[in-house]
């Protein structure tokens, strides 16, 4: 059923989106402020369950593209994502019936809500990543045959452009990223325009409500002095994600970062409180793999999330610091993200990791 | 000789030092006007050790006054927040996330203007002088007396903030106070801007307090320079303090940790500061507090101040001891400031941690016969509970399996045993109760750089050296003796998705004060 999302739920949603961001996707705090401003001016947002969307409806996902470090300084605007949507509508010659996140993890979960508040369009409770990923083609939309083109992009001087690379979404990603740099390192995009029936076939369903439930679980646990990590496990149960495993509790003892091919690659080392055991997390913007004492325990596309141990607040890769006290959890990705076609696009090999994918709940049975 | 003074919300502590040798210490109630409390503290030091005021070579003061003024929303100046970034950033204007109570308290007005830079130094837009003059006229019409100026990516280029300051200053006249964000904070526009607005709102109060402090010290015949201590354990001179009151905000825990280091001679350790209601645990690395990594909320405003990583928990000298032998618990409830009325040793009827410490012979406070009747097993268990709590928190702050030495300071540290389970011996240095004033007295001066650099192929070492040199230069400009300045912090974070290996570099240098 459709439901209404108001300003009072944004803190929980932002926290949950940061958890699903698995260390990347940008800090949703600024996005949360933008949505709050948009809602203050235009009112709350209607969220549609994917099953409610008519098969012939036009759904246009929107997002921001660029470097999170740029967006905390040159704050993204609320006009740009609407401008990108309008530019794509002009190109298609048709108005959108709904918008949607392409990415439910991190700051990009918030952008469609700004658009929804400002245009009155409903937002669909689904996305194309089920978490956060670094590149445009790493979408279930792409995996299951949809094309990102045409892609409309808008910058902060009111400029827009539309790219159409046909079925070549990887080339589209490359071109769009170059223009993003020209626009100052951040821009809004609208892409993967799709029909309601394609949406139902290719999207990861109910990820906005999942983010909201995760954020709420952490807040309530903290208020009631319960373990927030255990509360997250409870919140995941019964969803299509289903399984949460605590991979490790300990402290950050080393963070190594380098830039390769435009991405922040690196690894973080954690040591258990008694110093007897070690966890290594490898990341490329997002966390990709977790190894305990050299053994793989969780692999992309399953989610590796680093949380402050006492509060359950998620920590991004950029904010990882020596000495932080953390709980690292693995969350099972839904089945739609674990098919052979999906693993070919965003499985361990797609990131150059030498480990075959194994579901976290099978590596660590209860 | 130097004098260190810590003006807390409750107590004013002061010490007289010769090098790191303690000549005299005092602890007295903080006065309403701050300055008379300081004069009393100086009197008390002099009564213990008859020094000549002219022999004093430096006075260092740590104060929570400005932080308290913000929290209590009093004595804040009518303030404008001006941001240069149009056409970008307009969706989230300055003050956007402020608690309404504080926006009102600073009569906050927010202005957007063209300007700002991109991450690589390109201009977002040229500055529009007429637009700025128009804003200045509106500020004047609304009685604004202090202006916070921020510009997008000003840590990369401060050009526009400086130019806007000239224009606004020319329009509003010499009495207006201008605070520039690149001098206040790091990358992260909203957080840096928030810190700058807080700073601007405190400028008038700072001028008054700083004059008062200087007057009190000068009136005492001390002609040595006066410094205030900052969040990161370094000092600022009075002129800097007048312009940057916000930099004093977290100096309290920093001072007590640094004081603990010099008193104990241990420079890498956990410091447990046991107060009346709570205890703070922080970690010193090479004599400096480890900093918190996440954003810091001050009075409900998000900032990116440099704050020490401190865990507080509810055990202190005033903590209630409840339950009988076998089920004793200590804290988190406390008698607070009523300790000297409610505790058994002071003739009250509430069993506190202080009573237990006196009963165990760890402290000689008040009337020890008032606790002579306490069950020995209960006393032992209560102290054991305190020790277990502290040990648990210290353990969670450790970052390696190596044991971390523990140094205990603060009036309540008598509660701690000589050996903490799992942590080893507890150093309880002499003069532990005034560690914060000692921390203020021995503070150094520092300089920091936080900027995005484009690192070309093969140029990494040169660029990083450049950053280090600039941090050193800033420390020297702040008064450090150039011969002893060293880099104490270095952090290099590549920025994803950008070409040219854009890398954010943060670097901090500190050194001893020149001439002290």
From TrEMBL, chain A:
A UniProt-annotated Pfam family: S-Me-THD_C
Classification via InterPro entries: S-Me-THD-like_C, S-Me-THD_C_sf, S-Me-THD_N, S-Me-THD_N_sf
Domain of life assignment: Bacteria
Classification via Gene3D superfamilies: CV3147-like, CV3147-like domain
Domain S-Me-THD N-terminal: 9-164
Domain S-Me-THD-like C-terminal: 168-360
Protein name: DUF917 domain-containing protein
Automatic annotation (TrEMBL), chain B:
Domain of life: Bacteria
Pfam families linked: Hydant_A_N, Hydantoinase_A
GO MF annotation list: hydrolase activity
Positions of the Hydantoinase A/oxoprolinase domain: 192-362
Domain Hydantoinase/oxoprolinase N-terminal: 2-170
Record protein name field: Hydantoinase subunit beta
Species in which this protein is naturally found: Streptomyces tsukubensis
Phylogenetic placement of the source organism: Bacteria, Bacillati, Actinomycetota, Actinomycetes, Kitasatosporales
